[in-house]
Amino acid sequence: MVLANWHDAVQPYLSELNRDQIHFGGAGARLFTSVVKDALQQLAELPPPRDERDDLALPIPV
Fold first, then answer.
1. Are 3 and 39 in contact (CB under 8 A)?
2. Which of 10, 27, 43, 47 has the fewest CB atoms within 10 Å, counting from its CB?
3. pLDDT tens for residues 6-29?
4. What is the DSSP string of 14-38?
5. Would the CA dihedral through 34, 35, 36, 42 be positive or negative?
6. According to the model, what pLDDT value does residue 41 have?
7. C-alpha span between 48 and 25 (Å, rounded)
8. Are 6 and 32 contacting, i.e. CB atoms less than 8 angstroms apart?
9. What is the DSSP letter of 48?
10. 34 confidence band (pLDDT: 50, 70, 90)
C-alpha cells in the first residue's frame, strides 16, 4: 500500500490554497496531481503481491 502524503506536500504552499485552506486553485491542483502521480509510481515499482494460492502447490511438511 502506498499513500499520497498530501498533508506534508501542501505545507509549504498553504498560502496558495483558498482562504479556507482546504480547496486549491490551479497551483494546488498541479501539486495534488504530482503527489498522487508520485504515489502511483511508488506503487507501480513494488513487487507484485504474493498469491497465497501458490502455497497450495507446495508439499505439506509432515
1. yes
2. 47
3. 889 888 888 877 777 777 778 888
4. GGGB-TTSSSB-HHHHHHHHHHHHH
5. positive
6. 95
7. 36
8. yes
9. P
10. very high
